[in-house]
Design brief:
Chain lengths: ~300, ~300
């Protein structure tokens, strides 16, 4: 079983996409450079969503053009549709992420498609992308793998066919999203158990939300099962559905702290990581909901 | 293995003892009544510490005299010394908690005694208490079971003799305190493994702090090993060593949410529990650091 962990930082994309306060391309670049300084290497930096719908990420082309390319980073970007693919191909980015979900209501409300339609769209985009980037990396997101905000609980048997179809399509990685942050280890284990009959643990990344404080327990449970790829966002940026202090995304600081204290080397400097998102929090006028972020900063400041 | 969980609410004592803003006896009584309304039954309500040192708990005698005695509650109070025992005996309270630690520096700085002296003091107080309350309940706290703020890591072999001496003294329960909130499951498991040679899991309660977001993962790990008694405080009251939003005590809401979602019936109404500490937070001028607290309140308020 591999001991090396893969940490996928999603702050610049998933962390910012719902924020109303505009963050400049310059601030994003500085943020990404600080993330690289901290030791992180895999960063999902933006989405080629329509700038009309998500003005915050409207600078995707400019951002990618300005990224430092000499730092060993693996940058990826979300591609929601054909139009987004055209823009992605113009930039030359060779890692993309595509999106579907395990619940019909969620795909309907989010991308106005059935799961089957989203998968057909997915296949088409991936095929065109691979024509240009035969060795390009494609991540497939599957959201609502435990519970859907519209349908309630999602059974492992609903998740499995979506995951299997992505695997058969030839994606490089499948990222399972616990979209609303309600799951406990027993549920995640039940899902993993069903999937493991048919798919290697190496193919799967987990994307946990910490909305109810259970994300680290879920990471721990999946680590014990042999999973080594986990998403998180610096400072827990992204998804702040409740009062200040409530969380959406699992904070990368919490993930790194947990792993390092458990004896897993991450190569990430926690102080630099905590400082990386501080200018963004200041621009947003909020503080990070991450307890480790706060503990580390407090220690930094004496 | 028993499935029934014991939840020990420590908010009125551990949650308030370090707060500078005075909370009136009336507010505390209202808080305790709301905790009972939520379904909690075991509450550590105060400490007989000197009112000079901790004015916040200076109303211990009045508070106990005013407690509702017809609600099936199990009230306990911390007794730090001989003088405290005299006051405790005056009130007639039949459940007390005594205190020691696994690190010499911590007992020295906290109670100005060696561990051996604190244990001798402990034995004396328990003996006198049992003369008056032969069937009284005595909890023994052992702090810094994973790490000490002054000495660093504490080995399981340092914890074991303290725990064994308390067990041999005849305490009813030993509560292991992860005082600074740094532990991950691997460490807590290593400690449990060492103790389980010599002591029943039923004798042990765990007191986790959530300062770095690992408390629920630790609870989960100990639940899997068969432990069923856990401390927490409503809203995560107590110990706010860092910025607003950072945590000390594990929030009872987070614990109840985790257990219920894992299929364990707690008998606690989460909405009532989240509302219970709200007036206290308002008096303190802060918001609860508990993610579940915030999620539940946000849902309550539509």
């Amino acid at each position: 079983m591999p001991s090396a962990v893969r940490l996928i930082e999603v702050g610049p994309r998933d962390g910012l996409q719902n924020e109303k306060t505009p963050i400049s391309t310059e601030s994003k670049l500085s943020f990404i450079n600080c993330l690289l300084d901290s030791g992180l290497r895999e960063i999902e930096i933006t989405s080629f969503v329509s700038p009309k719908w998500v003005p915050q990420l409207g600078d995707a082309m400019d951002l990618i053009a300005a990224l430092p390319m000499d730092r060993g980073a693996l940058y990826s970007a979300l591609v929601p549709n054909q139009k987004g693919l055209e823009r992605a191909l113009e930039t030359g980015i060779d890692r993309i992420a595509l999106f579907t979900a395990a619940s019909e209501s969620f795909t309907k409300k989010n991308i106005n498609a059935t799961i089957a339609e989203s998968l057909a769209n997915f296949r088409e985009i991936m095929t065109e992308f691979r024509k240009v980037h035969p060795k390009g990396f494609v991540r497939g997101y599957v959201s609502t793998v435990i519970e859907c905000p519209y349908e309630g609980r999602v059974a492992p048997d609903q998740v499995k066919p979506v995951v299997m179809e992505l695997a058969q399509m030839g994606v490089n990685e499948i990222c399972l999203g616990e979209t609303i942050g309600v799951a406990v280890p027993a549920e995640v284990e039940a899902l993993a158990h069903v999937l493991e009959d048919s798919i290697d643990v190496e193919m799967i990344a987990w994307h946990f939300h910490d909305t109810r404080g259970t994300a680290i327990a879920n990471v721990e449970a999946m680590w014990r099962r042999g999973y080594r790829s986990f998403d998180a966002s610096a400072g827990g940026l992204g998804g702040c559905p409740y009062a200040p202090g409530a969380g959406g995304n699992l904070a990368m600081e919490d993930l790194v702290y947990f792993l390092e204290r458990s004896g897993v080397q991450t190569g990430v400097d926690l102080s630099k990581l905590a400082l990386a998102s501080e200018p963004i929090w200041q621009e947003l006028g909020r503080t990070s909901p991450s307890k480790v972020h706060q503990a580390v900063l407090s220690a930094c400041q004496g």
